[in-house]
Specification:
The structure is a homodimer of 525-residue chains. Chain A is α/β, with parallel strands linked by helices and 525 residues long. Chain A has 15 helices and 23 strands. Chain A has a 7-stranded mixed β-sheet. A 5-stranded mixed β-sheet of chain A has the order 21-6-5-22-23, with no helix packed on it. Chain A has a 5-stranded parallel β-sheet with strand order 9-8-7-10-11, sandwiched between helices. In chain A, α4 runs parallel beside α5. At the A-B interface, β5, β6, α8, α14 and α15 of A face β5, β6, α8, α14 and α15 of B.
């Protein structure tokens, strides 16, 4: 581990502050001393990105695909070194990290396929009508093009799939944008290894040096300076409400405001209908406990709220779910500050009044400072709605049961919810038929509505949407997962009356790329 | 003219302040005393919009099309009353207002056709793969759905096409959003008439009363209160940089931030290459003078900057353009404050130093207080880049010639420009072939690049894009003109594992609406 920043193809460590990485499960300090980027290094990275942009925005889909696949290859070539470092820094088990590497590579390849095929640009052509009356129609064409240099923040909970070469970086590169990554200080060694892989791919593909940079930084300083740099034209962020909101406001107040695609938090409510409880409460309790504790509860789609009718069946289910959670071992946080935030958040909920602790894991943790102890707490819908602090996400393996008086109250309660990434309804066929109203309300609140499945495990595909109304996201109409994520880092450009020779290939009459296009309002190849 | 607000289907005038309309060309006060909406009326309108939303978001494409066409019919049925009032309030000539009514109706019908066909929702289906290893793929589907109640601000310069039933309102209705309009105080009578037409259409189509409201307000008060109302989920605005920026920041600072689609201003540079000057300078001068003075210069696409090489041909063209402008009669502003802003803006440019007045119309104005006097001013590229105040848009019939030393300087100057709605290059075939670099730079700066045509007159079609990097727009990836404008008022909703019977028709296996959809990543019906 050299601990340096990657500034447009060169290693650099001119800053005065360093940070260390440690094993969350033991406290053991890991090799490497990572130097925070200086203001001059940050400026160099951003200027180089701006200088690279005219080249990257004009890359063909084929060239971008080759680059994305080269990154995937280089990441794989890091082999066990990457897996071991990511496991050590995050305390996530090897199977999870190996799976996450697979997802990261899968995302890069999904975008490679998308840009190689090319129709994602939404090419539109309305040819000239010189004879039209009262005025001729000019020749008008448009397509999506890259937005400009993008700042991407590594996420604490996904050292690979949402970090240096994660979904935001992959989709920004796919769009044709240079990327400046701010590495997450919880896994700087993983960031260094992945940056090395991207850097190698940049060089192998002969791209401009400014296509990629990666900066280290522990506090808010580097990140805040990055997002207000005039060269940066968009931000990708996954993290806490406080940090995301600060970045969002800083970007709104820039002389040139820029979009911030920040995914900030959600409680992902589970509405469990009585029929489902009657027929399969044991399976539901086991499944929900598994979803709550998956990855030590460190998923943005963690089911942090369970809405139940306060009757005998509901109470029995709560007890059953509590028993499931009580027998599960505490997970280890990706870093100790996550565990202490979790503990504080849980304590704050319990201190809010009229919140009951139903169960807590009885298994001894590996290490108290990093323990994520599964828990189940409960309150009434009335109390929940009266106390805004109860709606704040607690990031960790806890679900808050919210008791409603009867199934008739599900809709009224749902209609009071804040924005969510996901919302799920569990029910039997007959009662689901009556749940259309509930689903309709949940659609207004969430980016993804789910029936009879749990929200953790986000499928990476074309139809997925991962986002939702604030605070789930600061840009509710955009997704951070799936092929649709490329759209965040683009804007349409319209061409009026250009000669064929000056048009991009995507918009020429002869359609040399064979794209699906909208011609006179009709989709056609 | 009753002068009341339309609050969810009812007329209401509880406010204490009134405003009047007058003929800008004479000062004559027009019939009607318009009562500003009170805080309670505003709240009622917004709450009614929220209450209407569950119904409007679920309307079929057919029902929305019928509603949009009913609005168009009702506007036409207002007949000459509307034309005469709009002409009187705006001083725009009858031919222009009649044309603008045609465009307004055309926009409503374009969106009606779009939602009736239905494929705009971008339905995506990735069916379940229960056998996939290592994990089964769940059934994932998504489509665009309405965002929620939208606040729309009437624009001063388009009393019909960008006001009460203008593009923003039409696209929001098409998406399935209720709309609360803040009428522009320069044409409150036109707003009342059009609101009456929309209100009649709401009633005829049996839609919820909260589908539409319209509020009067002269200062920033009503507008600012409207955009921070918790029920409002998006804002459409066309107007000044100052007002738009204030709205943008207010919305970013809300507890729940919301998107603001504000189109704020641009200089729409015209790069005129030497070959074009050599072969057709007279036609270019006449055409450019016509574009500069069209609508008394009150177009967001007004060519406010002309970039020329400082040589004999360039100087001759400037003189020729100046002569064309000098012989044109001053237009009349849509309201006196526009004319005084224009005069101040022009004076500020001339006072900035090293700015030359080349020509000013010598024709006497109809009325000094509302005169928009065509003018041509000039400065060097060096001076322009040194003084940020020279980049501020002056809304009116003036173009600033920017002198560059040679054609080689076009690219360097273009690369320093702020965001623009449009940028045009005028040249002969041979020199255009060498202008690819200039066009590439202009693409980075503008929403629409144009060759050998003028930017005024925005075609309403599928491929048009009207927007651009800030300050052209606060949302550079969205258009306010053309069928793509519907996307601003939507967000995708994803459905996981829903039974067929609970899915929207757009996403069912049997594709009952016959939509073009993305199934497993392939476009298909």
């Amino acid at each position: 581990m050299h601990g340096q920043n990657f500034i447009a193809g060169e290693l650099s460590a001119q800053g005065k502050t360093t940070l260390l990485a440690s094993k969350p499960g033991t406290g053991e300090v890991l090799p490497g001393s990572f130097t925070e980027a200086s203001a001059a290094e940050l400026d160099r990275a951003c200027r180089a990105a701006a200088a690279a942009f005219p080249v990257t925005r004009a890359l063909s889909g084929k060239d971008k695909a080759a680059y994305l696949r080269a990154i995937a290859d280089e990441i794989l070539a890091l082999g066990d070194t990457l897996i071991q470092r990511a496991c050590a820094e995050s305390a996530l088990p090897e199977a999870r990290i190996t799976g996450e590497r697979g997802r990261t590579i899968g995302q890069l390849k999904l975008f490679a396929d998308l840009v190689e095929e090319g129709s994602w640009v939404d090419a539109r052509i309305d040819p000239a009508m010189p004879e039209r009356l009262p005025l001729p129609r000019p020749d008008i064409r448009s397509m999506k093009r890259a937005l400009g240099p993008v700042a991407v923040f590594g996420a604490s909970n996904f050292p690979l799939a949402f970090s240096t070469a994660g979904g935001d970086t992959a989709s920004a590169f796919a769009a044709g944008c240079p990327v400046v990554v701010k590495a997450h200080p919880f896994h700087p060694g993983t960031a260094e290894l992945v940056a090395q892989a991207i850097d190698a791919a940049v060089k192998k593909c002969g791209l401009p040096a400014g296509t990629f940079s990666m900066l280290h930084g522990a506090g808010a300083g580097v990140g805040q300076a990055l997002v207000v740099h005039p060269a940066i034209k968009a931000v990708g962020f996954t993290g806490s409400l406080g940090a995301g909101r600060a970045i969002y406001l800083a970007c709104a107040q820039r002389p040139e405001p820029i979009p911030v695609f920040a995914e900030l938090g959600a409680n992902n409510p589970q509405f469990i209908l009585p029929g489902a409880l009657a027929t399969r409460s044991a399976a539901l309790a086991a499944g929900l406990a598994g979803s709550i504790t998956m990855g030590a509860g460190q998923f943005c789609t963690n089911p942090g709220m369970t809405v139940l009718v306060d009757d005998a069946a509901g109470r029995a289910f709560a007890a059953q779910l509590g028993e499931e959670l009580a027998k599960l071992a505490p997970g280890t946080a990706v870093a100790c500050p996550i565990a202490s935030s979790y503990e504080k958040g849980l304590a704050a909920k319990l201190a809010a009044g009229e919140v009951e602790l139903i169960a807590k894991s009885k298994v001894a943790p590996v290490r108290a400072e990093s323990a994520m102890i599964p828990a189940l707490i409960a309150t009434s819908a009335k109390n929940y709605l009266a106390k805004p602090e109860l709606a704040h996400e607690v990031f960790g393996p806890v679900s808050l049961i919210v008791w409603v008086k009867s199934t008739a109250d599900f809709v009224a309660f749902a209609s009071q919810l804040e924005g969510q990434l996901t919302a799920a309804v569990h029910g039997e066929a007959t009662e689901l038929a009556d749940a259309a109203k509930l689903l309709a309300v949940l659609e207004e609140k969430a980016g993804r509505v789910i029936v009879n499945q749990f929200p953790t495990g986000v499928e990476v595909c074309h139809a997925i949407f991962h986002g939702g109304p604030f605070p789930a996201s600061t840009a509710a109409s955009t997704t951070s997962v799936g092929s649709g994520a490329i759209e965040r880092f683009t804007r349409p450009v319209c061409y009026q009356n250009l000669p064929q020779s000056l048009l991009p290939a995507e918009l020429r009459d002869d359609n040399p790329l064979g794209l699906m296009r909208l011609v006179n309002g009709q989709r056609t190849r």
